[in-house]
Amino acid sequence: MRFIRTGQISRPSLSAVLLLATALLASGSAHAEPGVIITGKSPFADCDIASEEGTNYLNAEVEPWIDVHPTNSKRLVAGWQQDRWSNGGSRSLMSAHSKDGGTSWKRVVVPGINKCSGGKGEFAYDRSSDPWTAVSPDGTSYFMSLSFMNDRPDGGMGANAMLVSRSTDGGATWGAPQVLKRDTDGRAFNDKNAMTADPGNAKYVYATWDRLFDTTLPKSSAGSRADGTSHARERYRQGLLGKSQAEARGDYWTGPTYLARTRDGGKNWEEARLIYDPGKYAQTIANQVVVLNDGSVLVFFTNITSKGLTSISFVRSNDRGTTFGSRKEAVATSVTLKGTRTPDSREPVRDGNILFDVAIDRETGYLYLVWQDGRDGGVDKVAFAMSTNGGNSWSTPVIISKTPPSESKFRTQAFIPSIEVGANSKLFVTYYDFRNDTEGTAKNEKTDYWLISCKPLKENCKKASNWGHEKRLTAKSFNMLNAPIARGYFVGDYQGLVRQGNGVRSLFGVTVGPGLNDMITSYHE
User: Fold this and answer.
1) C-alpha span between 439 and 407 (Å, rounded)
2) DSSP one-letter string for 271-287
3) pLDDT tens profile 53-72
């Protein structure tokens, strides 16, 4: 196989890129294409960031997402964070689109979402995060983002907003961003967004997120609060250990689920509204929308109680998102306190801990979940559960990651899983692990990306033993210690995986030098 980089080659570490970031398949498959690097030199290098706190990693790309045109599998749209900050967000977000099925890509700035991408006035935000793409059946593309100002001098959170940009030419150009929700009073932060286009009706698109609200603010504080995932993990830990600091003082915080909807193909958006309230000292995170074949809307989320109990739960709408029922629990999760650690130096990895991914099989209507779980040995591995009746009941969780046993439990970790359904209902799951980090040196924590599969029409995927057909998607291990540090070494809270034709397309991050990441995409059947 050969290696392809799209666009201009501008990294000084090209030789390292060629060696480390080639996304080849290590074993055979029915069909596999060369790995493609879709990222390149940052267009935001001249953006004035002199007044901002934290470390900025120029040319570091993290946290990709990808979607495909439902009726034209050659049209793809992707997004990622460009130039990640250590204390929340990135200089801005980038998109890329392909017209030839992923062989070549064109990088495009998503304009006007913050100051580095040309945003003015209300849109001159300092940073952006959480890129998410969606494509409707008529080809209209959507790019959802979180943009925010840095923390205020009094300790309150800066103005922040959920934005959506729209493209009618497959992601080649993007219109001005539309505001779904904006908060300015210093106590609310909108976070961890996702967007889903209704596959059966191009007029309907759904956006969802958690809205963190804290009465303890504004107050003097150290460090940025603009990282909802990190704060959710901390509140989970506080719940397990006893009362949180806010609760002990009698203060109030919460993190309900919000939803915004368009019914005219993105021309207008209804006012964002709360659809699930977890109560005091509790929150949701990782909200994602799944539209069932009958048009019902399920919004999945991690539910974190005031006692630190976690589950993947959902609320259901039978009227395309107009009203929602009460919370239903899909699976109780076993979240580890510390998350992923590198095998030798025990350094923290910013991973998918407390998050999850969800997929639906359009042929059968079956629903699938994967997440990081500590029920096997107390370290993070990939767990799986499924529903064959639209979410009414769920299978018992099983650990499906194939990372082999090791004398060191830290070499058995598997993290940041994604799941998707290919042709003939075949399931694909991707994740990172450290199995090849066998040299025992704390200077190079060798990391790889893997794909496994199961065929539910022929195999019982509720049994871990029926998962396999493993493929290594990194030709050579990369060093996790080269990743930008953002409350842990960071390649993204999530990675991209989408159905494309008869198979799936992955989009994932690797390190290519100190503080440098690239995004790799490849196709698998």
Assistant:
1) 13
2) PPEEEE---TTEEEEEE
3) 999 999 999 999 999 999 99
